[in-house]
Records
---
Amino acid sequence: MAEEFSGKIESKGLNPGLIVLLVIGGLLVTFLVGNFILYTYAQKKLPQRKKKPVSKKKMKKEKLKQGVQVPGE
């Protein structure tokens, strides 16, 4: 009986679904690793972004807020 079954079992190779999963997983890992490498390169090589200058109106508002912070005293 074991001889009957051993002849019918054939190795078909890898499952097609597994191949698709491996390809998508490989592309995703490649994408993430590439992004990480670009990010670290940009952190080291590119200059820091300059902050926008604060307008005079905003400066006045901030000073007023700080001055009126403690109204009870």
---
Amino acid sequence: MAMGAAAAASTCIRSASPGLPRCRVRAQATSWSGGAEALVRSGAVKAVRPRDAAEALGAEGFRLLDVRPEWERARASVRGSVHVPLFVGDDDMGPVTLLKKWVHLGYIGLWTGQGFTKMNDRFVEDVAAAVVAGDGGSKDAKLLVACGEGLRSLIAVRMLHDDGYRNLAWLAGGFSKCADGDFADVEGESKLQYATIGGASYIFLQILLLLGVVK
């Protein structure tokens, strides 16, 4: 899981499901991801390996739903994918949040380049606006849900399944597990599999790439 998402989940998660409390602790995120794993094991949600994504998006008719935050998508994305971030920047300037931001910066932000985030409390509604509205109001759209490393997309899959979506697939392991060519039309400054990496670790990655240690 990307560290920014972990930091957000460990503080406060604002539910995107109507009727539920606005604030959840990390246990809720664990419940969502655990529930999604059960859906995958049961076959209710299809697990798609990155190397099989082209077939799912082509012959099987799935649409790619990218739930990464904007900064990751800006580094590299699949052209034509639908973008609805599960986590968004937290602009609250209250004293408790400011303290959390400082801790996040020292332990996570400087190394990964990720900002302090909170759950997008309109995630389900935003997905509906992006994919359901254009499908006659139906939740039958076939969605391949993806993130950087696979955990945030598991949470998203569970939330969407709970909201009535039944043609869901999950990109197993996320974009970090893909290889060059798994997705035909990638745009951005980075390789798709490295887009989650930022901050000081991004500089370190560039050195490794320059030395040929990684490709």
---
Amino acid sequence: MDGVVKFVCLVGFVVLLSVAGVDSAGECGKSTTPDNEAIKLAPCASAAQDENASVSQSCCAQVKKIGQNPSCLCAVLLSNTAKMAGVNPQIAVTIPKRCNLANRPVGYKCGPYTLP
């Protein structure tokens, strides 16, 4: 009887976790994906391909918003959408610094890259 109660409790706990969606949230949260967030960085296209290109205010605003979650920002910069758009991740990780964002995650590891 004791084993049955433990088993029922375990099954109930697993069901509760899956209903709560604990394991379904990705780097950018439950409601969006890195590929969807990458579309919001369209104003950063030239700055993500050329380190000498100026970074627009609209780009910096989006990077600041997405960069509040560094793991999301990294996932976005390394996403398939970013790759297809011609983003160079090594240059893209410099955008927060080029935007002079005070609270940027300096030293954060973004795949094989480190945010300056």
---
Amino acid sequence: MTKHEFEVEMTCEGCSGAVTRVLNKLGDVKFEIDLPKKLVWIESDRDVDVLLETLKKCGKEVKYNGTK
């Protein structure tokens, strides 16, 4: 599985909770959230565009930083 890094404009636990909810609904992904650095790492075989659109559902600004 490929590990992707995204920058998500998260400011609180509620924000990271929203990210967790949308990613859990997607299924078949492993992810880590670093709230202070506003980063989310996702391990998945899904297309980057699918991951990006899923993250945008949490209502935050999202930027793809590439693979890690």
